[in-house]
Amino acid sequence: MRGSEPKILILGGTAEAAALASAFAELPVKAITSLAGRTSNPARLTGTVRIGGFGGPAGLANYIRVEKIHLVIDATHPYAARISQNAVIATEATKTPLVRLERPAWEKQPDDNWIDISGEAEAANAILPHARVFLALGRQHIAPFAKRADVHFVMRMIDPPEAALPPDCELILARPGDFAAEKQFLEKRKIGLIVSRNSGGTISYAKIEAARALGLPVMMISRPPVAARNIVASPEEAITFARTSLGF
């Protein structure tokens, strides 16, 4: 690639970040996708990929300076609040444009039975004894539930967790299924409650649709506030922002 092409840092780990990397490969820019490295076998991405943390906002700011990054696109998970905040601090320190790609949250439908919850700790305390719960959270978010020996948890994730598991639990290493598969999953295990984050998107929405069909309550953990000033809702909007900011 030509050295004069603007460099874009994509803070990734989502389907939207992968779509951006593919799109930028066809444009006169150099995109670098950064992954936290929490998944042992991440999906293959187009273009340059770096794996690992930056060492806080100062480390990210140093990376931006050394690599001469022209634009940062924060396309991390809606709940990755720490890296998003670090991106704000680092781009302000380096005077680098930043745009947050925040996929739209799921909207509650008339037949949904959602219980709004502020975080995992509150959810762990609110679950009734002897409940059968599908804990639809990432492996790094299960620690608050480990103390609940009086609850049967079903957990499904891509990689096994490093934290201690609840005493009464079933761990399934798998990805989400479609509506029929999720409905069968919940019925087979006699799930009475789901604990979920409002991740948005289509990949994991089938469990919400299945819960609606079965009349199951869902403890929906609220999203953290967005710290960035510039916010878009799709890869297409992020590309438009990049074109406007960088003039390509």
UniProtKB/TrEMBL annotation:
Fetch the InterPro entries from UniProt. Precorrin-6x_reduct
| Pathway(s) per entry | Cofactor biosynthesis; adenosylcobalamin biosynthesis
- Keyword line: Cobalamin biosynthesis, Oxidoreductase
One GO biological process this protein is involved in is: cobalamin biosynthetic process
Which EC number(s) does UniProt give? Answer: 1.3.1.106
Q: What class of enzyme is it?
A: oxidoreductase
Q: Which NCBIfam families match?
A: PRK08057.1-2, PRK08057.1-5
Q: What is this protein called?
A: Cobalt-precorrin-6A reductase
The organism of origin for this protein: Brucella intermedia
